[in-house]
Give the backbone structure.
Amino acid sequence: MVSPRCLAFAAILLTASTISARANDEIQVYNAEIAKIGQWTFQLHSNYAFMGRKEPDSPGGRIPNHALQGTGEWAYGITDWWEMGFYTPYAVDQNLTPALRHSQRG
């Protein structure tokens, strides 16, 4: 028989995973490694909405259903304790149309 403690732990995990599944944006997980001096690194953080809202949040907005979004993260090792990096975010909708910043929509 399953102990009450195991059931409580499973319920907490299920609740936490359900809450995090409703996040509106990407969640990035890092491994805490720093690029070696003079070395470039690249990490790709992506997520895909298998079942999302079928209407945009605002007029002209992107429809989240079947949308892919993420961020490429480039980093360069400066010292053994410091790296400098930049993000290259991307997003495409269900028709593979890239998401444009509001100022680019015209």
Residues 17-23, 102-106 have pLDDT under 50 and may be disordered. The chain has one helix and three strands.
